[in-house]
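Hey,

The postdoc asked me to send both predictions to you directly instead of through the lab channel. I've kept everything plain text so nothing gets mangled by the mail client. Protein one:
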Amino acid sequence: MENRRMHPGRIILALYELIKNSAIVFIFLFVLRRGSDAGWVVAGRWIFIAAISISILNIILSWWRTTYRLEADSVQIDSGVFSRKHRNVPFRRVQNVNRQVPAVLRLFGLTSLTLETGADGEDASVKFPAVTKAEAARIEEALDGYRRERMEAARAVPGTESVEGEASEIQEPLPEKARTVHFTAQLKDVLKASFLSFSFIALIPVLATVYSNIDDFIDIESRAEGFLSFLAGSGFVMSITIALFALAAIAFGIIRTYLKYGRYIISSDDERIYIRRGVLTEQSLSVRKKNVQAIQITETPIKRLLGLAEAKLVTVGSFEDNLEDISSLYPFLPKQRAVELVGELLPDVRLLDGMERLPKAALTVRMLRFPWIAVIGTIALYFWRPEFPYVPDWPFLAAALFSFTYLLRYFDYRNTRYAIRGPLVQFRKGGLWRETFLTRREKVIEASASQSWLQKRFGVATIGTTNRAKPVHVEELKDLPGAAAEQFDRWYTERNPELIPAGKEAEPWKTLQSES
């Protein structure tokens, strides 16, 4: 296929970023200091103009010199203005696909497409910053076509395995285009999210940043002191000001939350899970169900009081920094709805009821463990000895720290549960914050069981699982009965025969490894 360039809208997007990053310097040099003839101001203007001119030229040349080409099994990318770089990214390494539509691209009907791989560093993703929606669809279709060809080749030759152990991924059904919508955020969901996420508090750092930037150019500290003195002199004016600030903070929080979580839609077909959110900047994620390694359900103290929970997909591959939380199935769902949604999206994964509690010996072991954090905190309090109004002396603070530590251990013991049933294993743990982890046996790439000296004396053990993710996801559950650790050993070693290489026996690993 022929080489192609990104849409010229890539230039506009880059210019927008340039203007946004240099706006403060421009305002200072050409607006606030417009009448100044000082040498450093004049020199700063010329340096600014030169830097902007070079940046614009680099943006245009970078767009012109960057090309890509779709092959049958990979995407080829050539970039670099003076020093050329060639990248060859095989389609078999692509794990997730996500789209972002910034407000600037939305005006031109464009989108940004990113193919996430399991690599590190610069090779972690392949990004198309500005392409038409038709071109994005063409790229995704090339990826799907490659997978279809591999599946047909595997069916034509029974027993054929792909390189690098991808046989299980080949044998999936053809993707269905019809999607089922499972969740759409309503106005009540956005309002609930705005208050539970405390987004209204974000107005404070925003105002502090604005104040700091303005204070660098204009001395407003004296004016602010005069305004505060005026407020302090009138209780009525102070009350009105506080009320107006509270209303502004609430409005800011609702608008900010709506822009992020508005139009939140979760849908799926036979092969993929689709998550889309955002109003001005639209973000979307496409995850293959085969790549979902586990489910995490998190309940913060406030969410537990309100019966809410956040279900998150643990998937193969990585995400960009601003997309880390998009794998969440809406963070403010009622717990029962979150559980139902997991079952709808992943029919082979069901949260288990009737989980087992830890034995009383586990509580003894947890209470006997050395409280490192409390001891270090006490030492810090002894040397620091803070003296604050209405705050007790350091011995009382140290006693409170120890009491809080052991109280958390007790709550963690009460909340910890486990279930090993069929192909599923499920952990629940946490003191004030509660987390439930669920995965299937074939998704676990490594399992472990161990006993410390203390655990051995009380007949309990620690088990853990490792799942493919970016970074690798490790889950651990402490102080289970020794019999449960043996059950976990059998559960993992009795995996499906297709997971064991032909001609090899499954090698049972030691049930308990003694730790020094």
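Protein two:
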Amino acid sequence: MNKRYFTIGMAGHIDHGKTTLTKALTNIDTDRLKEEKERQISIELGFAPLYDDDEIQVSVIDVPGHERFIRQMIAGVAGIDLVVLVVAADEGVMPQTKEHLEILGFLGIKTGLVAITKISKVDEEFIDLVHEDIFEELKGTVFEHSPYVLVDSLEHKGIEELKTLILHTLKEQNMRDAKGPFRLPIDQVFTVKGQGTVVRGTVYEGMVEEGQTLKVMPTGLTVKARQLQVHHQPAERAYAGQRAAINLAGVDKDELERGDVLVSSEHFIVTRTIDVAIRVVENLEYLIKQRMPIKCHIGTAEVMGRIVFFDRNELKEENGEILCQLRLDEEIVTKRGDRFILRRPSPQETIGGGWVIDPKGEKYRFGEKTIESLESKKEGSSSDRIIAALVEGKSLTIDELMKRTALTEEVLKDELLAAPFHLYNGKEYALTRVMEEIEEDLYDRLRDYHHQYPMKQGLNKAELLQALQKNYPKSLLDYVVEQAVLKQTFKRKGQYVSTGDFEPHVPESWQKRTENMLDALKQDKLKAEYLTDYIKKAGIPDHLVPDLKRFLEESNQVVSLDDKFYYHENVFSDAVTQLKQGTGSEFEVGQAKEILGLSRKYMIPFLERLDAMGLTDRVENKRVWKIK
């Protein structure tokens, strides 16, 4: 896939012209709600297509600027690839602008442009002073050295220049991971008459296809992507970086909410305790105290919880990263590296933000040892990062590992030579311990199966692997089975797999009765009755009959004439020898009846069995021997 998909965001103070600028760029008014029209401010996230060609597609999110709508702003910014900071020339950087800047920093936004709007409201001589003042305020932020464009949205000044700069900047950067499992944090849920439930959001990673079965996390609901839309146009697929609306089958609107996450894989972690690295804002008004209630904004979710420190009991000022833990009141879906914002619920203020070190945090003791452990997790060696990626992805190529670990190809190839990693199929890597776990799991399943069905050859390979295919790629499972066969840990006979030391056998409690039954069958020679009659006379229970018949035939102790009559193997072999010796190269049915003394009831099935076994060929009314 050569085409790349990006979402950019407009951020800035209320009434600095974000929505007007978005309309000038896209010719779409993103203020849709009646309340937004009346109050002339954005309340919900607004979306519009900016550009689309064979190489690149770009969407715009207009995020609300008013402090009351900070949640919506965070939900929008969390999924974007580039931010356009909008600053009005007649007002400059305002308090809201500064809060947005802090949030953008905490969310790890690395690419930004500055649009200085409303330039027609100031004199030309004043522009240089405005520019200098704005960039003085932007020192120490992602926008410190960002390019800027002077625009007036109403008069369409600078609009094409800004658009060109946006496209040029995006073409220089990589898009989000479209190869990994699909993930879309939901930021809007609604219904469409005649269509049902629809969700909307930015595809964080991976790709979704029309008709694909998905999971809603953390609830675990299974849904189907009935229809997809990108920019209000039907689409067969939606890729990382795109804004997508998905019509879901199998779920009602009331079962979903903003903050839920739509995924294609169960590998994503659902958790309530996360180990994190945070930074705090420069000018905190109040102390941050141990176990203080916080509001965590992660993806599109807003979850209450408490902050837990391991090296202090309160925090007022801190320039560096603080390693701590968030214990949340509700489950979220997250992974290492995800960004979040922390706000104080009351009085409301942004207190900081950071990134997830470990989505599966545990309870730790207060003290330096815990901080050292968290520091080790945070730093994560190259090997640690590869291991983490393979724990999640199970089996990944070099290209996939590069995207997931942010390591270069040279570093990866060097690290992957070590023992924890295993190359298979010439291109995919897996953890040796994961492969061992798979083999152990398969072995346990086979052992249990042999215990339950001791007379069967083994378990059908497709059935053996079915349960594990939800968690592992089939290519990896197939490889593990083949390696286990080579090591003789497993045996394979046709489509059946068994443990290496297993031989089909009659359960010990029924062995003597089975021997008696076979003796009776042998004594009756060619005048044998139905096999089931012998089995019942021997006192063997009905539920064992199908497996016992199959086992006796597969172990060559009996030969079936049809599904009712069976001969003891010795009796059948003697009869074949007798018939061969009593005939020439060919014979007729009547001749065979005279030699073996069989009635038609036995004779026809006997001869058909010879044909089926490849001992004879039927030519018109004769049989021709194929053996010498």
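Summary for protein two, as requested: DSSP finds 19 helices and 34 strands in the chain.

Thanks,
C.
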